[in-house]
Design a protein that fits this description.
7 helices; 255 residues; alpha/beta; 8-stranded mixed beta sheet
Length: 255
């Protein structure tokens, strides 16, 4: 029996093939990034909040980069040094050829990112975490925290109450829908910069989506739990977590 990682190596390539179905060879390189992705990137890159102190060249990692269109948008518009992770070596080899090595695509998985600590100014995980097996989800979030120097951008399905469901393309795969914000915030080293809860009622393709934001009471009602998504931008900062010593606390002795 194949392991979950082996299954996702296969699905990684199959997902890509479905995404580019009907396109001539290489046409997918011109696919536009999701509008809800470009919105948050433009907002924070253009006001220089995500630029490094000594250079305008950002190092950006996309964990589960798919066709590479989100990274391609950043590369073209901000001249960033971009890296993408996918579990299929066949797919990463194709992406490196097609993008002419302008973006570096590396074979790997979210729970074992092959990078040093604090390697990137921004780590993106766009509609990826729902694939990750729950035995590996905390490792994956820890790896994202480890390799980012500053910012994390996550978008995924986010119901009012967590659940799992059968994957429509493969009955051997389950996907998981939960809220990742509180897990990351409870590390004590993340600050929330931006949050958007929304859903897409219908779309012709990825570039023509109607985005409907949800109010708190609408989200908590559970009515939208099958389709609702959450996009969060977090800033990593160890200074958020205070250092304390025993004298900072009132000690109550047992009588």
């Amino acid at each position: 029996m194949k392991s979950k990682k082996e299954i996702f190596k296969i699905e990684s390539l199959q997902y890509f093939n479905r995404a580019v179905q009907g396109l001539k060879d290489g046409e997918y390189l011109e696919q536009k990034a999701h509008p809800d992705f470009t919105e948050i990137i433009n907002q924070y890159f253009n006001d220089s909040r995500l630029t490094t102190h000594d250079s305008n060249m950002l190092r950006v990692l996309d964990v589960g980069c798919g066709t590479g269109k989100n990274l391609h948008f950043i590369y073209k518009n901000f001249n960033s040094e971009c890296f993408g992770i996918e579990p299929s070596s066949e797919l990463t080899e194709k992406l490196n050829r097609d993008f002419d090595n302008k973006i570096q695509f590396i074979t790997g998985t979210s729970d074992e990112l092959p990078f040093d600590d604090n390697s990137f100014d921004l780590v993106i995980c766009w509609s990826t975490l729902h694939w990750v097996h729950r035995n590996l989800i905390l490792q994956s979030l820890g790896e994202i925290l480890r390799v980012t120097k500053k910012y994390i951008l996550i978008m995924d399905f986010c119901p009012s109450k967590p659940y799992r469901t059968e994957y429509m393309h493969d009955k051997n795969i389950e996907t998981y829908k939960i809220d990742y914000k509180n897990i990351l915030m409870n590390t004590g080293i993340c600050k929330l910069l931006d949050e958007k809860i929304y859903y897409h009622p219908s779309w012709k393709d990825d570039t023509e989506r109607n985005v409907i934001s949800l109010k708190k009471e609408e989200y908590e009602s559970g009515v939208y739990d099958w389709v609702v998504r959450k996009r969060i931008l977090l800033e990593k900062d160890f200074e958020l977590l205070p250092v304390k010593i025993s004298n900072d606390f009132q000690v109550i002795e047992n009588k």
